[in-house]
Automatic annotation (TrEMBL):
<feature type="region of interest" description="Disordered">
    <location>
        <begin position="362"/>
        <end position="382"/>
    </location>
</feature>
<keyword id="KW-0408">Iron</keyword>
<keyword id="KW-0001">2Fe-2S</keyword>
<dbReference type="Pfam" id="PF00355">
    <property type="entry name" value="Rieske"/>
</dbReference>
<dbReference type="GO" id="GO:0051537">
    <property type="term" value="F:2 iron, 2 sulfur cluster binding"/>
</dbReference>
<dbReference type="Pfam" id="PF00848">
    <property type="entry name" value="Ring_hydroxyl_A"/>
</dbReference>
<dbReference type="InterPro" id="IPR001663">
    <property type="entry name" value="Rng_hydr_dOase-A"/>
</dbReference>
<dbReference type="InterPro" id="IPR036922">
    <property type="entry name" value="Rieske_2Fe-2S_sf"/>
</dbReference>
<protein>
    <submittedName>
        <fullName>Aromatic ring-hydroxylating dioxygenase subunit alpha</fullName>
    </submittedName>
</protein>
<keyword id="KW-0560">Oxidoreductase</keyword>
<keyword id="KW-0411">Iron-sulfur</keyword>
<dbReference type="GO" id="GO:0051213">
    <property type="term" value="F:dioxygenase activity"/>
</dbReference>
<keyword id="KW-0479">Metal-binding</keyword>
<dbReference type="InterPro" id="IPR015879">
    <property type="entry name" value="Ring_hydroxy_dOase_asu_C_dom"/>
</dbReference>
<dbReference type="GO" id="GO:0005506">
    <property type="term" value="F:iron ion binding"/>
</dbReference>
<feature type="domain" description="Rieske">
    <location>
        <begin position="35"/>
        <end position="142"/>
    </location>
</feature>
<dbReference type="InterPro" id="IPR017941">
    <property type="entry name" value="Rieske_2Fe-2S"/>
</dbReference>
């Protein structure tokens, strides 16, 4: 049930995974306008809670101000120090670690030590730089652009699904890892099931038959759905889900909102994954993992929740590690490859993603399409 019936061109050339020019074009045209999932509401539950991250060469801080989440550039306008180096924490005031300048929820200055030495006060240049922040379910998103669509509009293809990340599903773990590869290597790997037998022989084991695959392909979004086998693990999951008060669908979904936000789900879990470029050949991959808590509060449901949280998180990290083991080899192959590449119908979501990259980085002026080779120069020996 693939959309395409014939193999497809590999639209990106190997140098598009290694060049500084391409990296800069993608930051400008793909990532600057995007909304980025960075945390959960439980990370910022109390007034005064904060987290900091460095993404897209931008240090930022998100803080809870009496129940309102606000995001700012993590740089003090006084002498350019980071406000804080701590990755997370709790503080009564948003205060710079260097000279103690304090800031309110609008980014304006509060208490300034020995303020009289700064007369006349330059109010315009003394405020923190604001970023947009919003939530979908229990997911917290930040946007570095001052204009553009709001979060709900941006997430339109997936809003109704991702707003349920939370509720009956509780945040179980967040993990991330730096990889020595271009961010597109990670994203494209997630877009196809063709690699499953080689990379996941003990977890997923084999890719589903074509008649058990449903693809949806649009300009900004693609999805994959399959029905996992009714084996012992599947039956055990269904038994647990019912006893925790949730309906059983036995559907696996994988949804990607371009350029980089990925949601995957079974009845037992919800996972948000996002890959951020840190350089032409480096990236950071971040996973926010939720497991089913359900609606029942009896002792059995609680035990099942704790058991499911432990097992599902361990499996999620194992799959993450299996995929991570091949990224460096792919990147090194990219850097040496003489081939134009080819995309099979099972990998058609990769083609759709590559087309998105081409169409949204100012096309031929910044990213020329790969020319069709007249004759293949490399020869495979039998």
């Amino acid at each position: 049930m693939f959309t395409n019936q014939h193999h497809l061109k590999h639209l990106l050339r190997p140098h598009h995974y290694t060049s500084e020019e391409q990296y800069r074009a993608e930051l400008r045209h793909l990532f600057q306008p995007a909304w980025h999932p960075v945390a959960t509401t439980s990370d910022l539950a109390r007034p005064g809670d904060f987290i900091t991250l460095d993404l897209l060469e931008t240090p930022f801080i998100i803080r809870n101000f009496d129940g309102e989440l606000r995001a700012f550039l993590n740089v003090c306008p006084h002498r350019h120090s980071k406000l804080t180096e701590k990755p997370r924490g709790h503080a009564e005031k948003l205060r710079c670690q260097y000279h103690g300048w304090e800031f309110n929820k609008d980014g304006g200055t509060g208490k300034i030590p020995d303020a009289k030495v700064f007369r006349p006060w330059d109010r315009e240049n003394s405020c923190l730089k604001k970023f947009r922040v919003d939530t979908c379910g229990d997911l917290v998103f930040v946007n570095f652009s001052a204009s553009g669509p709001g979060l709900r509009e941006w997430l339109a293809p997936v809003w109704d699904v991702w707003r349920h990340y939370g509720g009956a599903y509780r945040h179980a773990a967040t993990w991330e890892k730096e990889f020595a590869c271009n961010w597109k290597v990670v994203l494209e790997n997630s877009l196809e099931s063709y690699h499953i037998p080689e990379v996941h022989p003990h977890t997923f084991k084999e890719f589903p038959a074509e008649e058990n695959v449903w693809h949806e392909l649009t300009e900004r979004f693609s999805s994959f759905k399959t029905l996992p086998p009714s084996d012992f693990a599947g039956r055990a999951q269904a038994w647990m889900v019912r006893r925790m008060g949730q309906p059983v669908t036995n559907e696996y979904w994988h949804q990607v909102l371009h350029p980089h936000a990925t949601g995957s789900s079974l009845d037992s879990f919800r996972m948000m994954q996002c890959v951020f470029p840190t350089g032409p050949a480096t990236c950071r991959y971040r996973c926010i993992f939720f497991t089913l808590r359900g609606t029942r509060t009896n002792p059995l449901a609680w035990v099942l929740y704790r058991t499911l949280k432990s097992i599902a998180t361990a499996i999620g990290k194992k799959v993450f590690a299996e995929d991570g083991s091949i990224y460096l080899g792919i990147q090194r192959g990219m850097e040496a490859s003489p081939f134009p590449g080819v995309i099979g119908t099972r990998e058609e979501r990769v083609y759709q993603f590559q087309k998105y990259v081409l169409d949204n980085t100012k096309g031929p002026r910044e990213l020329p399409q790969a020319p069709a080779p007249s004759e293949p120069t490399p020869v495979c020996a039998g």
